[in-house]
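Tutorial handout. Part one gives the primary structure; part two gives the three-dimensional structure as tokens.
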Amino acid sequence: MGKFPDLYPYSAAEAERLQELEQWRQSRMVNIRCKEAIERAVSRDFDGMRLKDGCVQSVLTEFGYKRVIFVLANTLKEKEYDGRFSATNRAWFGKTFVPPDGDHNASSFVVDSHPAVLDGFMTEFRKLYQELGLFGSEQCEPDPDEAVFEGKVLAVSPAALDEDYFTPQDQLWYAKGGSGCFPDRIGRAVFATCLATGERDRWSRADFIGPVKEELLPDWAKAQAAKLRAGEQIEPIEISTTAHAEGPVPGMEQTM
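Part two.
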């Protein structure tokens, strides 16, 4: 487990089927605490005109990006009738999947702060997320479900990463092989090498957003991938990160 408790991505009914009700309960309790923390932060830091600096960060420090995204996405889903939330925020958070869960979603972790102020909280959140510079679907090849992964540089979905590794360099892995590299095979395993560290690991095909467009890869990643294609070993390198275009929480709509 990383710095933050795991976010359980399924409904209570699915958790019961999988015999994971305790994980569902524990995650729901944290969702509720996150919702309450957002309400306290908004109440504390709204000066009548705007939210004070650090309002959003105070919640992120305690609960992390994944949990806050999930709670805010659920709030917008349950308040789809409310026109005080911006279309931009609705579109962005709407790409995060929140499973239908009966009354649990509506009664448990809908943020009840004033919609206009909460909308400002959401906008500031998106700004902070953008500053992470993570790769999203916009930087990847279209139709990832049909793509061959072998021999390509893939972007790991943040949904599959601990938040300690929420950096673009930690997302970039070179696919060496495995049945999961091919869309028409039953197996899902993808054996890959991290371009930044040289670490080798086994992933599932679903853990990746898709192959990154070659023209959008940073030079260091192209150089590391070229070595791997030539059969050479790579060494860990130090990287200065650069931001990418703003997008949704990459891949989370598929895995949460």
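Part three, for discussion. The chain has two domains: 12-130, 137-237+247-255. Strands lie at 153-156, 172-177, 189-194, 200-204, 208-211.
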